[in-house]
Write a structure and sequence with these properties.
- The chain is α+β, with helices and mostly antiparallel strands.
- The chain has 3 helices and 3 strands; from the N terminus they run E-E-H-E-H-H.
- 24% of the residues lie in helices and 17% in strands.
- A hairpin with a 4-residue loop joins strand 1 and strand 2.
- The chain starts with 21 loop residues before the first strand and ends in a 5-residue tail after the last helix.
Length: 140
């Protein structure tokens, strides 16, 4: 049991602080050895808190996979959280590109975010390390 109130997300610190816009995540299916990379904002466009603790994904294919698998068979891993919308979008696309998503049969991502980012942060070393570990099926 985690000491943090992060819903079903695995991360090494508390998520959802007011200084952050959202997080980049990877959902891994160790049975089929597949994964999906996404992002989730902590707040809705109009301002109130989003459902980030219970959020599944926006991917119809991954949602279907989740319905077919017991909850404990899927790993929901947060790679990093970011302070700006631009960097959050860039972090998702950067992660999919690093995973060679569209050409990688293990990656369930088939679309990438629109290409317009106003990045005010760099991809963190923590993000890079956690993505590499997740893609190599290491424990996080």
């Amino acid at each position: 049991m985690s000491e943090f109130d992060n819903g079903h997300w695995s991360f090494d610190s508390q998520l959802g602080g007011l200084e952050y816009e959202g997080f980049i995540y990877v959902i891994r299916d160790p049975i089929e050895v597949l994964y999906y990379i996404g992002k989730k904002s902590y707040r809705t466009r109009s301002g109130p808190a989003s459902n980030w603790k219970r959020y599944m994904t926006s991917s119809k294919r991954v949602k279907q996979m989740m319905l077919e698998r017991p909850e404990e068979h899927l790993e929901r891993i947060v790679l990093e959280q970011y302070k700006t919308k631009g960097t959050l979008s860039w972090g998702e696309v950067w992660s999919i590109a690093q995973a060679r998503g569209p050409e990688n049969a293990r990656c369930l991502n088939v679309l990438m975010s629109k290409v317009s980012w106003n990045c005010k942060e760099k991809i963190t070393a923590k993000h890079e390390q956690r993505l590499e570990a997740a893609l190599n099926w290491e424990d996080l």
